[in-house]
Structure formats: C-alpha cells, structure tokens
Amino acid sequence: MLEIGSVIDGKYKILNEIGHGGMSNVYLAINEKANKPWAVKEVRKSLNRDFRLLRQSLSMETDLLKKLRHPNLPSIIDVIDSDENFLIVMDYIEGHTLERLLNEEGAQPQEKVADWALQLCDVLDYLHTRPSPVIYRDMKPSNIMLRSDGSVVLIDFGTAREFKDENSADTTCLGTQGYAAPEQFGGMGQTDARTDIYCLGTTLYHLVTGHNPSEPPYEICPITQWNPGLSTGLEQIIQKCTQKNPQDRYQTVGELRYALAHYTDLEVQAQRKYRGRLRAFGIMMMLSLICAVGGEGFLAAADRKQGSEYQQLMHMAEMASDTQEACRLYLDAAAIDEGRQEAYHGFYKRVIEDGVFSDDEEALFLRLGISTDRHLQSFQKKNTSGYADFCYEMGNAYWYYYEHEESRQSRAAGWFQTAMGYYENDPARAAEYRRCQLYVELGAFYKNVIASQIDGTDAGMYGEYWRGLAQLKALNDAEPDREMITLRIYREIATRIVEYAKYFMEDGVAGDEMLSMLDELEEDMQRMEQGATSAVQQEIATIRWIAEGARKMVRSTCNVQGL
C-alpha cells in the first residue's frame, strides 16, 4: 500500500485513501506545484496471481482513455509501472457512485434518473461515434460517479473494446451478470452499440425501482409493478432497451436519447386522453357531416376534409420563412395522409435548402414519428415508388448534408440500402439503383477502413474505393444531381486524394489518373461558376484549395515512388 504523505514520481503527494477493492486501492493525491488534486489508482502485483494479464488489461484501459476527451469521462494523466505496483493517475472526481446512493437512499426519483440517463446517452453517443467506435459494455450504478452539481461521470473502462465490424463474435465474455446483455455471454454475435443500450436500460431499471437485476427475481419486470406511480412512458423505454434480441432494442443511442427526453409524451394516460379527444372530435364531426351531406355522402365529405387539411398544411409549409416550422408542417401533412409523396419530398427539400441537415431537423423528424416503422410501412404499402424515392432522398440528406461529418455515411447507408431493394427491378430507376449500390459500397469502405488498417488487411481496399468514387462522378456527369451534391462529390474526391494518394498508387491507381481527375473537376467547376450563387462559389473555392493540396500530394508521392 502507498504510504500517506509519500510522494510518487516526485510529483504526486498521497493525502489519504478514498476507496479500495479486491485488486486495487484508490488514493487522493495532490500535485503541490500545480495545487491540483488527482486520484491515484494502485494495483499491487503481490495481490494478483496473474498480474501479467491484469497489467495487459490495465494498459488497454489507459490507452483507450488517453484517446478520449469528454466532460462525462475521466482523463488519464499519468501511468507509472514499477516493480511493486501499477499506478494510474487520473482526474479526481469529487462525489460518490450511484451504487452508494442506492444503498443509502433506495430508488431514485424518475426525473433525476431521466436526467442522468440523458447525460449517459451523450457520453455513449460520443464513444460509439469515434473513428474506431468504443463499446463500453459494463454500465452499472457502481461505475457511474455523481458530482455535487448533478453531472455524472462514467468510470472503469476495464471491459470496453473498440468495435470491429468484421468480428462475428467477441472473444471474451465480459460484463456484470444481471446488467449485461445476452450477447456478452458468447454464442450470440459480437457486442455493439445496442449492447450498451441494454446495459443502460438495466441500470435505469435498478435506479428507478431500487431492485438490483443481479438479484432475484433476475428479470426486468415492468417498473410499474414495483411502483404504480412511475411513468409508463419510462417503462416502455426500459422495456425496449432490455429486449433479448438486439434488433428489438433502440438501434442507436440517438434514438434512445430522444425517447428519454420525451418520455412523458409516451404516457399511456396521456395517449388515452388524446385518443379520447380525437374520438369526441370525430363524433362531433360525424354528426355535423351527417346533417350537412347525409349519411351516403359522409365518407366523401371526410375524404374532402382530409384532403383540404393536407393541402392547407402543404401551403403553410411552402409559405413558412422559418425552416424548422416549415419542416414541422410538412411532417404534419405527411402524418395526415401517409400515402402522398409530396409532403415527404417537401420535408427533404426544405432540410437541404441551407446546405445542412441539422440535429434539430433530425430530432423533429424523429419526434413526429414519421421515421418510425409504422409510418414508413404505411407509406410503403400505399405508395411503393414514392417510399423508395424518399429513402433515396434521406440517404442523400445524411450523406451530403448531415452536420456530423463522422457519422454521415453510416446513417445514410441504411436508407440507400432500402431504396436499392425497391429500385433493383425497376428499369426506370436504373441510374438511381446504381448510385445506391455505389453509396452502400463506399459506406462499407468508410466503416471498415480504420479497423482494416489496424489489422493490416486494408491492401486492395483503396483501389476499389477509388473506382467507386470515379463511377459515382461518371453517373453524376451523365445525370447531374443538385449543384451542391455535385460539388460535394468533387470535394470528396479531392479530399481522399490528399488522404490516400500513396495507398491509391499501391493499389494500382496511377498518379496521372488522379491528376487527370483533378483537372476534370476544375473544368467542371469553371462552368458551374457562371451565374453561381455565393454558396456555390464558396464551395468551389474550398474545393480548389483542397485540390491544390491533392496535386502536391500526388506529385510528392510520385517522386517518392520513383514514378
């Protein structure tokens, strides 16, 4: 054990012990020169039979945390490996674990739990959207620290792993039984973002009910069975998080975060009240219409009313100056008549009008339920071709306009995949089908390239990727899309030449071919400049700057390669 008052590595003075477990002790230390407190985690070699394996695990944990920067994660400052112990110097988090809070106070108010859950969703979303996504895998109250200001910090990354798409299964079973998802125990595929969603669901269950899922009855019961006063909306969310089949859970933390932010909207009582108001309104309208047009003309009158409301909302959306309001009106119209394509298309056009598909616009899309299976399935049944076109448009919205650069392609790929399935046997949509196919292939490259680089299996990927980009440009040259989409294809080509020129050449793409492509881009942009808007001119200027760097990179790489 470290002695109180001793100085470690000439910098960290040990003040007192603040925690201990079977394998380690945690101390409060201070850097006297900086007058800043730190936490020092000591793992003693004499207390661990297989210290070599433990040391490997600790090294992985510290290496992982060093890459991450988030207000709800601790930062690793220093690692000291001596003959007697392994020391990790990290942020000192003043507070206590949620496990301690449960032990002292029992079940927590659902409003607090929902707030903590939103913070945890934020940090999980950060982890899952890293270039190499990080799956935490051990969410539980004892691994969550609560600060005095109400913020929470996720600690202990001993079981976290970087996600690799090509792995069909995890090699080890890690996590805490009761909190861990079924796939963490082998034989059910590898863990992914949905695993963390399951673990967060079990954690919320424990926090809001006070019943530990690791103890009898060893199941996640509806929370209102323990406390009828709890929210039925929160109950629905926890039940969906903790489904055994990952496909039945929320598929992304973003979906879960939105549901949690609006859990009161899911209340059964509120839904019943709303349906009651609709029924009362419907009865009144029915009586009025019967009186006005007679029983035989009622359905026709109702259809006319629905059509009138749809057209009114569409007109209001087209006239709205505020983008958010216009999007809301388009989606309201789509909800009234799910089979008509115009409202969906109007939403897409308004979203991309300013060149950015924002978080607020995406949240509106999710909140109004148009993106849910029920609405889209109804749209698909009533208007198959319109549904396919909307999927294609949403793929474009995410691929070219979504404000989060690192997750554009991953969010777009599913929409393109769906559209491709409908376009496959439609000769009139052959060009769109081929574009979807290319987007899916390019998306697979973005998803897998970093993991393949780490594993040394990336040879050959870059040549295929280059050919995909070139084919996408050729298709767009033949049937040009919007100017901004065309320019963002050009930007992508120039950017990837800067990034991958050496790898392209190693995969057989000649330097002259890349330079020729850049010349084509310049010729096209010169034509587009005539009478262009300021936004287009600004985009062209950016691409030219990137393209100049791409030319330098190709020439430099050619010299190095002796070409």
Task: State the distance separating the first and last CA atoms.
Answer: 62 Å
Our Rg estimate from Cα atoms comes to 28 Å
Unreliable stretches, pLDDT < 50, 5 or more residues?
159-173
Helical coverage, percent range? 55-70%
Q: Overall mean pLDDT score?
A: 81
Shape, per Cα inertia axes: globular
User: Hey, roughly how much beta strand do the residues contain?
Assistant: 5-15%
| Secondary-structure class | alpha+beta
- Main beta-sheet annotation: 6 strands, antiparallel
Count the E strands. Answer: 11
Figure out the total of helices.
20
Q: Give me the side-by-side strand order of the main sheet.
A: 1-2-3-4-6-5
Give a structural overview.
- The structure is a single chain.
- The chain has helices at residues 51-66, 98-105, 110-128, 193-209, 223-226, 232-241, 253-261, 268-293, 298-319, 323-336, 341-352, 359-367, 373-382, 384-401, 408-423, 430-455, 461-478, 483-506, 511-529, 534-561, and strands at residues 7-8, 12-20, 24-31, 36-44, 76-81, 85-91, 95-97, 134-135, 144-147, 152-154, 161-162.
- Residues 159-173 have low confidence and may be disordered.
- The protein is globular and about 75 Å long.
- The strands form three sheets. A six-stranded antiparallel beta sheet has the order 1-2-3-4-6-5, with helices on one face.
- It is an alpha+beta fold.
- It is built from 20 helices and eleven strands.
- A hairpin with a 4-residue loop joins strand 9 (144-147) and strand 10 (152-154).
